[in-house]
Design a protein that fits this description.
about 80 residues, elongated
């Protein structure tokens, strides 16, 4: 089977970008949560993930800082877990 170069390149790009999507908690302590998100995820998705992690301790997430790393095409959101 022969593939067109553009179709193959586009398929590869979509596979790579698709594999990078999703929120991931990369820090989860009693006082703080850091969430990595990229692809189609938003700050609202990161906040929901942080709230879920903080809720396990009877707390809510309050955003402390958000950052974007263009070389990694990733966003990071840092939250404090505070009393309700």
């Amino acid at each position: 089977m022969r593939f067109k170069p553009v179709s193959t390149a586009l398929s590869l790009l979509l596979a790579v970008l698709g594999g990078c999507s999703g929120t991931q908690i990369i820090e989860n302590t009693p006082t703080a949560v850091t969430v990595r998100y990229d692809g189609t995820d938003t700050m609202a998705d990161a906040t929901a993930a942080a709230n879920k992690a903080c809720a396990a301790r009877g707390k809510i997430a309050k955003v402390r800082e958000a950052e974007f790393r263009p070389t990694l095409i990733r966003h990071f959101a840092h939250f404090d877990c505070v009393d309700k």
